[in-house]
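Problem: given the chain below (149 residues), write out its structure.
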Amino acid sequence: MLDYFVTHYWLVWLIVAGVLLILELGFGDFFLTCLAVGALVALVFSLFSLPFGAQVLVFAITGVASIYLLRPRLLHALQAKADHRESNAEGLIGRTGVVVEPVDAGKDGYVKVDGDVWRAKSKDGSPIAAGKNVRIVSMESIVVTVVAV
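Solution.
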């Protein structure tokens, strides 16, 4: 069986690339992905009957080059919106909901948005009856400010 792999180096590189990509799922830092790219390039060179030592050299050079050239782009694409993530509460602003307990001028009511019930007050102090649709315009602590839609 070893003789089969010696005559079919492309299969060795395919297995190496597959194992590296599977291992990458556990780490997520894109180092192993870059090495998998190197294995795939070595696979292509193995199809041209390049000696195994040269294939290993191609694998090493391509893997290291991918770490410096490809990995920063992958990390940037993955973390592009990391600074702009809205929390659950901030994500409510602009959403619409239904009044489940009336909102009066001097008394807060309750609004249901996506299955969650939030304490609510009217933006302009006007009463809003139960069953009316409202839009959330701001939030202070756990109290949302709403306007009738």
